[in-house]
């Protein structure tokens, strides 16, 4: 039986060179529900443990479906200083050490005509829904995806919380997704439910694993923390990816508890 490990001197040298060029571990975090309470700002205890993680040698980064402005709203104006990597819209807009280094657009990828047809159909489907509350901003166009909200992103926090409960019972978002899949079977889209009120639509492969190409060759371990890790959730693909060590959390307090253990182990 052949050994799975390289045996020639040249292969061993290349493997050693690759490993020696890698840093230790990077900790990647979903934002909403993982680093913060849903749609709220980062808490002081979370800020403290993240700072401690950097002090003991971890590289830290965020990867979220939201655009940069929403990430900044939740994590603060110093977001580019507080995190080594910031991956907005799953990494389609990427920052390293405070500087933008990558950008990709869904408009460039799909073309205007196809996107307009998809958005029109989405709005027709939403208009026919029988749900208690609808507000405004049902389709939000982002650099790398469309965010679709049956209730509308202009809803209040109370309406957001109520819709989350309603959706768990009536599967509103899942139903809209099935209708869109049937209407556009040839579109290379992935649909991912996340947060309380919406789902993301993006080209297949543009989920959160997209960002891994920028870190997989530089770190020996990639830890990922997320709260939507079940199939269909927007953390599922990166959580299950063989390149990551996945940590599934239910609230930001779970994230703090895991970080405290990792920091303690790092200090031994």
Automatic annotation (TrEMBL):
What is this enzyme's EC? 5.4.2.8
Superkingdom to which the source organism belongs: Eukaryota
Predominant location category? cytoplasm
Any idea where this protein resides?
Cytoplasm
Where does the chain bind Mg(2+)?
Answer: 30, 32, 227, 239, 241, 244
Task: Provide the cofactor list for this protein.
Answer: Mg(2+)
GO molecular function: any one? metal ion binding
One Pfam assignment: PMM
Nucleus: is it a keyword of this entry?
no
CC annotations in GO: cytosol
Renumbered to this chain, the signal peptide range is: 1-24
GO BP annotations of the record are:
GDP-mannose biosynthetic process; mannose metabolic process; protein N-linked glycosylation
Alphabetized, the UniProt keywords read: Cytoplasm, Hydrolase, Isomerase, Magnesium, Metal-binding, Signal
Catalytic machinery residues: 30, 32
Instruction: Cite the annotated pathway.
Output: Nucleotide-sugar biosynthesis; GDP-alpha-D-mannose biosynthesis; alpha-D-mannose 1-phosphate from D-fructose 6-phosphate: step 2/2
Where is alpha-D-mannose 1-phosphate annotated to bind? 39, 142, 153, 160, 198, 200
What is the catalytic activity of this protein?
A: alpha-D-mannose 1-phosphate = D-mannose 6-phosphate
**Which family does the similarity line name?**
Belongs to the eukaryotic PMM family.
How it assembles, according to the record, is: Homodimer.
Matching NCBIfam families: HAD-SF-IIB (TIGR01484)
Describe its function: Involved in the synthesis of the GDP-mannose and dolichol-phosphate-mannose required for a number of critical mannosyl transfer reactions.
Question: What is the recorded name of this protein?
Answer: Phosphomannomutase
Please name the source species: Angomonas deanei
